[in-house]
From TrEMBL:
<feature type="active site">
    <location>
        <position position="153"/>
    </location>
</feature>
<dbReference type="InterPro" id="IPR001461">
    <property type="entry name" value="Aspartic_peptidase_A1"/>
</dbReference>
<feature type="compositionally biased region" description="Polar residues">
    <location>
        <begin position="77"/>
        <end position="88"/>
    </location>
</feature>
<keyword id="KW-0964">Secreted</keyword>
<dbReference type="Pfam" id="PF00026">
    <property type="entry name" value="Asp"/>
</dbReference>
<keyword id="KW-0378">Hydrolase</keyword>
<dbReference type="GO" id="GO:0006508">
    <property type="term" value="P:proteolysis"/>
</dbReference>
<feature type="signal peptide">
    <location>
        <begin position="1"/>
        <end position="20"/>
    </location>
</feature>
<dbReference type="InterPro" id="IPR034163">
    <property type="entry name" value="Aspergillopepsin-like_cat_dom"/>
</dbReference>
<dbReference type="InterPro" id="IPR001969">
    <property type="entry name" value="Aspartic_peptidase_AS"/>
</dbReference>
<feature type="active site">
    <location>
        <position position="338"/>
    </location>
</feature>
<keyword id="KW-0645">Protease</keyword>
<dbReference type="InterPro" id="IPR021109">
    <property type="entry name" value="Peptidase_aspartic_dom_sf"/>
</dbReference>
<feature type="region of interest" description="Disordered">
    <location>
        <begin position="70"/>
        <end position="113"/>
    </location>
</feature>
<feature type="domain" description="Peptidase A1">
    <location>
        <begin position="137"/>
        <end position="444"/>
    </location>
</feature>
<comment type="similarity">
    <text>Belongs to the peptidase A1 family.</text>
</comment>
<protein>
    <submittedName>
        <fullName>Acid protease</fullName>
    </submittedName>
</protein>
Length: 447
């Protein structure tokens, strides 16, 4: 069982990281990596591929695990202790008031982020700032008057945050939400959450409600999940103070009473029941609620029906083309639009069809995925969306990250399950509207 052994060696249990809520954690199979790559800088292609496979519980090719295990020297996991969580409910009435008014500008961690918005007009606009290598995008969210930069994830449905229940060690460098300083915070007694993103990252804890403002768009009793345990990869990623899930509410993990996403809650107050993702290559983009800004795309927006059965922004796909070549049919499959994943995971058939047109592209077992020469000019990849829209992914974006020398990790890799995951590299070329009114995805070429 070599691959099981690898998995076991690679991932330790999150249980070792937890002291405040051990029971809640132990009953979930919640894991964290034990061997950390000391050289990891946040734009590691194989690692992003592993994250994507595991977020969706796909089989991980043994070569990929080997490649990651063999890279860098093993590093011991820090022991992240948590404080007792009993303080959360008390100290009402102290501190700042929740929720600034419409149109208020909010500052980010250090002034790199800003938000404008207008809740009276039923819209909210916030920046989406990429972290090094465009691995993830962060946006400022005001919770009970406190601003945190969160990763908006259209592939999950929990809003969880770094907060004052976590120890100083777990929160060093992070901005934390302190529920005791919000007059609007209310604990939901007995509620808990536990979310595992499968790459070993995850969070678990208790739950309350508070006012959440995203660029002016406001929800007064939004469920806020307060982590009492977070995995090391979130601890290390100090710019990221939590996630804001934007998939369908049926994927929310809060028990015993499942909670609605921010988008589901805010939808009735929006000018239009939509949010849009404007994610850019190495530049600040935006998420906008309630409005489709036609200045951000060219041509007509195509509307693709969403298959909601699994709770994702999922659609059919059945073909592709490479560069300006003729369209090729591919086996009919399903794909999801996932802002919380970095790479594009297509079928093996599409990955093979694409890299077959790239001189020097190899499926490199020592790296665990397809690599291309860094100096290659990559052709565009055209992906069929619902038989309605042909999305052109720019070749330059598919040259994802250097592995070493002239070897770069490909931004398109094969999925090992039936579901294709189209992440941030897809969004860099496409402006995407998520329409909760008629469960469609609007897509058009980004300007
Ligand atoms: C918000 O939008 C309304 C309606 O379009 C407008 O009258 C108002 O001036 C706007 N407020 C701000 C602060 O932008
Ligand atoms: C602000 O944060 C960004 C992202 O974390 C970082 O790269 C930058 O150095 C910070 N700037 C200052 C002035 O602290
Ligand atoms: C919707 O998705 C489910 C699960 O992925 C799949 O079984 C089903 O065939 C899809 N429906 C359509 C109409 O494609
Ligand atoms: C391919 O098509 C794109 C978009 O239509 C065009 O801009 C580009 O010049 C074409 N490239 C070649 C090599 O024909
Ligand atoms: C869904 O809504 C959008 C805009 O609100 C509209 O343009 C589109 O035609 C609708 N699509 C369907 C299938 O109803």
């Amino acid at each position: 069982m070599p691959s099981f052994l690898n998995i076991f060696l690679f991932f330790g249990l999150l249980a070792s990281l937890v002291s405040a809520a051990p029971r809640a954690i132990q009953k979930r199979s919640f894991k964290v990596e034990r061997v950390r790559n000391a050289n990891f800088k946040g734009h590691d292609g194989p690692r992003e591929l592993l994250k994507a496979y595991q977020k969706y519980r796909m089989d991980v090719p043994p070569a990929l695990l080997d490649a990651i295990n063999n890279k860098g020297k093993p590093d011991s996991t820090e022991n992240v202790q948590t404080k007792a969580s009993s303080q959360t409910g008390k100290a009402k009435g102290k501190g700042r008031k929740g929720g600034k008014g419409a149109g208020a500008a909010v500052g980010g961690n250090n002034g790199t982020t800003a938000a404008v918005g207008n809740s009276t007009a039923g819209v909210g606009l916030v920046t989406a700032t990429p972290e090094a290598g465009d691995v993830e995008y962060l946006s400022p969210v005001e919770i009970g008057g406190q601003t945190l930069n969160l990763d908006f994830d259209s592939g999950s449905s929990d809003l969880w945050v770094f907060n004052s229940q976590l120890s100083a060690k777990a929160t060093t460098g992070h901005t934390v939400y302190d529920p005791t300083k919000s007059t609007g915070f209310k604990m939901i007694n007995g509620a808990s959450f536990s979310i595992s993103y499968g790459d070993g990252s995850g969070a678990a804890g208790n739950v309350g409600t508070d006012t959440v403002v995203i660029g002016g768009a406001t929800v007064t009793q939004q469920a806020i999940e307060l982590a009492t345990a977070v995995s090391q990869s979130f601890v290390s990623d100090t710019a990221n103070n939590g996630l804001l899930g934007l998939a369908f509410s049926k994927l929310n993990t809060v028990k015993p009473q499942q909670q609605k996403t921010f988008f589901d809650n805010v939808m009735p107050s929006l000018a239009e029941p939509v949010f849009t993702a404007d994610l850019r290559k190495n530049a600040v983009g935006a998420y906008e609620f309630g409005r489709i800004d036609s200045a951000k795309f060219t041509g007509a927006m195509a509307w693709i029906p969403v298959n909601t059965t699994q709770g994702f922004w999922q659609f059919a796909t059945a073909g592709f083309a490479v560069g300006n070549g003729t369209a090729q049919t591919a086996t009919a499959a399903q794909a999801i639009a996932d802002t919380g994943t970095t790479l594009i995971l297509t079928s093996q058939e599409i990955a093979d069809g694409y890299y077959g047109q790239v001189q020097g592209a190899v499926n490199d077992a020592t790296v665990g995925g397809v690599t291309v020469p860094c100096d290659a000019t990559l052709p565009d990849l055209i992906l069929d969306v619902g038989g309605i829209y042909q999305a052109r992914v720019k070749g330059e974006d598919i040259n994802f990250a250097q592995v070493q020398g002239n070897t770069c990790f490909g931004g398109v890799q094969a999925t090992t399950s039936d579901l294709q995951i189209w992440g941030d590299i897809f969004f860099k070329s496409q402006f995407v509207a998520f329409n909760g009114g008629n469960n469609t995805l609007g897509m058009a070429q980004h300007v």
